Amino acid sequence: MASNAETAGKRLVLIGGGHAHVLVLEAFARHPEPGLAITLVSRDRLTPYSGMLPGHLAGTYTRDEIHIDLERLAQASGARLICDEAVGFDRAARRVRLKGGGELAYDILSVDIGITPDLSGIAGAEEHALAVKPIGSLLEKWDRLVESALAPNGPRRFAIVGGGAAGICLAFAVTAFLRNRLSDAIEVSLIGAAEAPGINAGMRRRIARALKRRGIAVHVEDAAVSIDGDGVALASGRCVPADAVLISTHAAPPPVLAATDWAKDESGFLAIGPTLQILNDEVAFAVGDCATMIAHPRPKAGVFAVRQGPVLAQNLRRAVRGEALETTIPQRDHLLLIATGDGRAIGGRGRFLAFEGRLAWRLKDVIDRRFMRRFA
Ligand SMILES: Cc1cc2nc3c(=O)[nH]c(=O)nc-3n(C[C@H](O)[C@H](O)[C@H](O)COP(=O)(O)OP(=O)(O)OC[C@H]3O[C@@H](n4cnc5c(N)ncnc54)[C@H](O)[C@@H]3O)c2cc1C
């Protein structure tokens, strides 16, 4: 075991208050590393937990219930929180440039900054749609949408573009929230370019039945090609009329990463190995949606960022102590639970397990609340 002298004066800088970094802070709060100076740079003081986000949009959870207070967490772990944005990385000098004008030097760095929406493939999306990723900026946009929807002549026809798990969750949540407030006067459509990846056939059948039960119109394997004030034009030539469009399609790496000379995958996400270090920089780690484990790529989902948290905490501790690092391989599949907005959920795992009902929703609720209690 390393002595305090080896970690004394070392600077660990965490960029982004994503799912893995909150677990790192929680680990350092439980077991402080004497002499280590930890700094967290985050755009926001509150970070939302993705598992409960659809439940919040549906009106089930309050905003407080789904947010982790980074200031309180930083205090508990003896870290300094800087509410700012990293706008540049100097790998050789081991420095991070901040939007507010400052610079931070580090001995060990970790990056957990999520993704940015990629609207480039859909004409008019920038002007006429609301991008739901990254989730940090979603709630402000959602508040504006709700305000206009509740106005007498507000939008009544909603389209969700993106047929993956997030898009499906969103369609159920939007329907639940708006139907509760506007009765059946609203129409919701879900548009997907392909069948949702990572969702087994049994779950897909249950999801299709639940979408029908909730009156959500579904357009599968028909990509959105353009959006204007009248609605969404699809590749087939059909048009889905809509007054408001939410987009939850694939995402791009945060632009700040483009100028760095860190190793990246073909889409520009940071390329990491099984120790979570960036492939060409042993003092820099990257986790969550902004990174791809090159040998074991997985879909961009919060569950993988959460799983990386404890390993990252351990490896950051080992890196500052100069010890050998642990390796991790992300699981191939994981329990997926999709709330249908009517007190029920659809769950499944791997190729065959699929179930649904009120108990599935209770299970999801218990798992998510248990996660959040760690930060209370
Ligand atoms: C509607 C919806 C529902 C979803 N539901 C689920 C679900 O049920 N289960 C699941 O596994 N996944 C779900 N996802 C996906 C999930 O939200 C993401 O995979 C997850 O948030 C990624 O976590 P992360 O740690 O990589 O980054 P994020 O959670 O996006 O956090 C990144 C943080 O970094 C900050 N940041 C960004 N850039 C900078 C910068 N330059 N400097 C400083 N700070 C910065 C941001 O403000 C943010 O706080 C859902 C997504 C959506 C849109």
TrEMBL record:
<feature type="transmembrane region" description="Helical">
    <location>
        <begin position="158"/>
        <end position="178"/>
    </location>
</feature>
<keyword id="KW-0472">Membrane</keyword>
<protein>
    <submittedName>
        <fullName>FAD-dependent oxidoreductase</fullName>
    </submittedName>
</protein>
<keyword id="KW-0560">Oxidoreductase</keyword>
<keyword id="KW-0274">FAD</keyword>
<dbReference type="InterPro" id="IPR036188">
    <property type="entry name" value="FAD/NAD-bd_sf"/>
</dbReference>
<feature type="domain" description="FAD/NAD(P)-binding">
    <location>
        <begin position="11"/>
        <end position="309"/>
    </location>
</feature>
<keyword id="KW-1133">Transmembrane helix</keyword>
<keyword id="KW-0285">Flavoprotein</keyword>
<dbReference type="InterPro" id="IPR017584">
    <property type="entry name" value="Pyridine_nucleo_diS_OxRdtase_N"/>
</dbReference>
<keyword id="KW-0812">Transmembrane</keyword>
<dbReference type="Pfam" id="PF07992">
    <property type="entry name" value="Pyr_redox_2"/>
</dbReference>
<dbReference type="InterPro" id="IPR051169">
    <property type="entry name" value="NADH-Q_oxidoreductase"/>
</dbReference>
<dbReference type="InterPro" id="IPR023753">
    <property type="entry name" value="FAD/NAD-binding_dom"/>
</dbReference>
